[in-house]
């Protein structure tokens, strides 16, 4: 299908939101981002409140679009996303959005990050006017003083010379969405869970593995209170969490989550086959699931093989270092050589503090 065309003069937030959703489904993420950015501008002016409840869904889609745009431009970090698992549910969600297009709840949403962009534009001229003076001041400062200033934390309200990346904007947008969905209470749980999982994906892309695992796990626990044991949504989340765990070196936990994903997909196939009333309609989804399940099984096998390889690398140096019992000169020489195994042992992995950010640093780095 063709890309979605946006009318720059369109000021109808409902229409723009619908176009943004369609662009997202068509993987035209640049158009989706522009659409949601415009919607945010319109709705912020309409409600005068960046945290208005109607902005929640728009923030969520805006953040998801920014994440996918970033992936499209730079490529994802790993193989943690079983995208096909979500295609059916995503399509259903968009269809429901189209059917309810006249409903305010479906169409009203989004804004905060756009406000940040507007602030950047307003201060751009001031920054340019200051740039020459700032550069001169920096040149006059001792190297040590300038270095300290560069690494010092920015004060609240202080202008940043660097433009935010797509991932950083996505993070800020989704944090706003999370707060809105929390304020909704029980009605916001479904979207809150999805928001947490997308935040986890952003952390994964940024290399903050512990934060990714924490957010995805929290989102998964919420989903398990909302959906049954044949939910494709939960199957996808288990798969994503398995990818995050494997990237973090937690192979056993990754295997458990991949296997849980497999079980949920298998349960879904069983449920669809039992539904005789919609047998023809379910046939296509059953075929799709039967194509996905082997991929998950292959991932489980890969993780088990990786676990075995790691075990071999750990035990091999120990076996080579074991002293010989035959007492021959050759054995003595061999034993002496085996004792020197420094070249065989992999360097110890960096401490978690070196590779994982603490909670204050969960936000993606520039």
Automatic annotation (TrEMBL):
Protein name, UniProt field: Nuclear autoantigenic sperm protein
Xref: Pfam families: SHNi-TPR (PF10516), TPR_8 (PF13181)
Residue ranges constituting the Tetratricopeptide SHNi-TPR domain according to the UniProt record: 193-227
InterPro entries cross-referenced by the UniProt entry: NASP-like, Tetratricopeptide_SHNi-TPR_dom, TPR-like_helical_dom_sf, TPR_rpt
Basic and acidic residues bias: start-end ranges: 104-157, 350-366
Localization in the cell: Nucleus
Family: Belongs to the NASP family.
Source species of the chain: Asbolus verrucosus (Desert ironclad beetle)
Taxon lineage: Eukaryota, Metazoa, Ecdysozoa, Arthropoda, Hexapoda
PROSITE patterns: TPR
């Amino acid at each position: 299908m063709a890309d979605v065309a946006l009318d720059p003069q369109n000021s109808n937030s409902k229409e723009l939101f619908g176009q943004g959703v369609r662009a997202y489904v068509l993987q035209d993420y640049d158009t989706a981002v522009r659409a949601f950015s415009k919607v945010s501008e319109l709705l912020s002016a309409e409600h005068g409140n960046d945290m208005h409840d109607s902005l929640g869904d728009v923030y969520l889609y805006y953040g998801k679009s920014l994440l996918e745009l970033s992936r499209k431009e730079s490529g994802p970090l790993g193989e943690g996303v079983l995208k096909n698992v979500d295609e059916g549910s995503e399509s259903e969600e968009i269809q429901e959005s189209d059917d309810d297009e006249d409903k305010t709840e479906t169409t009203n949403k989004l804004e905060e990050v756009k406000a940040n962009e507007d602030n950047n534009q307003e201060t751009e001229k001031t920054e340019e006017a200051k740039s020459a003076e700032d550069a001169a001041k920096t040149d006059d400062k001792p190297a040590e003083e300038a270095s300290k200033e560069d690494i010092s934390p920015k004060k609240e309200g202080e202008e940043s010379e660097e433009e935010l990346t797509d991932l950083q904007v996505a993070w800020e947008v989704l944090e706003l969405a999370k707060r809105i969905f929390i304020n909704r209470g029980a009605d916001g749980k479904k979207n809150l869970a999805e928001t947490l999982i997308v935040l986890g994906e952003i952390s994964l892309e940024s290399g903050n593995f512990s934060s990714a695992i924490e957010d995805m796990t929290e989102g998964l626990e919420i989903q398990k209170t909302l959906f049954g044991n044949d939910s494709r949504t939960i199957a996808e989340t288990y798969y994503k969490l398995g990818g995050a765990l494997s990237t973090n070196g937690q192979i056993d936990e990754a295997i458990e989550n991949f296997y849980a994903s497999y079980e949920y997909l298998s349960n879904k196939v069983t449920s669809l086959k039992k539904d005789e009333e919609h047998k023809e309609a379910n046939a296509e989804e059953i075929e799709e699931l039967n194509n996905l399940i082997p991929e998950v099984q292959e991932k489980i096998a890969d993780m088990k093989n990786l676990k075995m390889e790691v075990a071999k690398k750990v035990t091999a140096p120990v076996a080579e270092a074991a002293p010989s019992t035959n007492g021959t000169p050759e054995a003595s020489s061999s034993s002496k050589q085996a004792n020197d195994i420094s070249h065989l042992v992999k360097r110890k992995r960096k401490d978690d503090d070196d590779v994982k950010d603490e909670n204050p640093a969960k936000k993606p780095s520039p």
